[in-house]
Amino acid sequence: QVQLVESGGGLVHVGDSLRLSCAASGRTFRSYDMAWFRQAPGKEREFVSAINWIGGYTYYADSVKGRFVISKDNANNTMSLQMNSLKPEDTAVYYCAAGSLRRTVGGGLSSPGIGKEYAYWGQGTQVTVSS
Predict the structure, then answer these.
(1) Bridge-partner residues for 61, per DSSP?
(2) Cα–Cα dist 56/63, whole Å
(3) Which pLDDT tens digit goes with each residue over 51-106?
(4) What is each CA distance from 116 to 3, 91, 126, in whole angstroms?
(5) Cα–Cα distance measured from residue 102 to residue 105, given in angstroms and rounded to the nearest whole number
(6) Partners of 81 in the beta sheet?
(7) Angle 46-49-51 (CA atoms, 0-180°, nearest 5)?
(8) By three-state DSSP, how is residue 64 classified?
(9) Cα separation of 42 and 34, whole Å?
(10) Judging by beta carbons within 10 Å of its beta carbon (0-12, 13-18, 19+), is residue 17 exposed, middle or buried?
(11) pLDDT tens string 29-43
């Protein structure tokens, strides 16, 4: 069992940066693949970024590629999302997720953007980008 708690959300302006953190409990944290999803008001939840258990593979939605950076610290049971050059369309509740995903032949994640692949979810943290 893994419990996830997000932090770091807040109100920022266009172009600002923000760093989200996901703290996990449980001895098996290091073995889990992790991801960030977000949900804006009136919209469906969407994939933001994912990282495999050891941090060797990272994945990003096209909308955040080049602006967001995901990282995982297995020693401290945390995962982070550094968000730069924030835009109003980044406004959403951001959720941390963990799971043991299917692998590709090369060792990467076969479906990092599929929410059903993740067994554990946090409660979310609000990010609001004001113009």
Answers:
(1) none
(2) 22
(3) 999 999 999 999 999 999 999 999 999 999 999 999 999 999 999 999 999 999 88
(4) 17, 23, 22
(5) 10
(6) 20, 70
(7) 140
(8) coil
(9) 25
(10) exposed
(11) 888 999 999 999 999
DSSP-derived pairing of the beta strands 10-13 and 125-130: parallel
pLDDT value at residue 26: 79
How far is Cα 128 from Cα 10, in angstroms, rounded to an integer?
A: 6
Scored b (16 or more CB within 10 A) or e, 28-47 reads ebeebbbbbbbeeeeeebeb
Distance CA 122, CA 131 (A): 28
Q: Which residues pair with 112 in a beta bridge?
A: none
Q: Which long-range contacts (CB under 8 A, 24 or more apart) does 49-54 make?
A: 49/81, 50/109, 50/112, 50/113, 51/79, 52/101, 52/107, 52/108, 52/109, 54/30
Which tokens is 77 given? 């049971």
Tokens 């982070």, residue located: 80
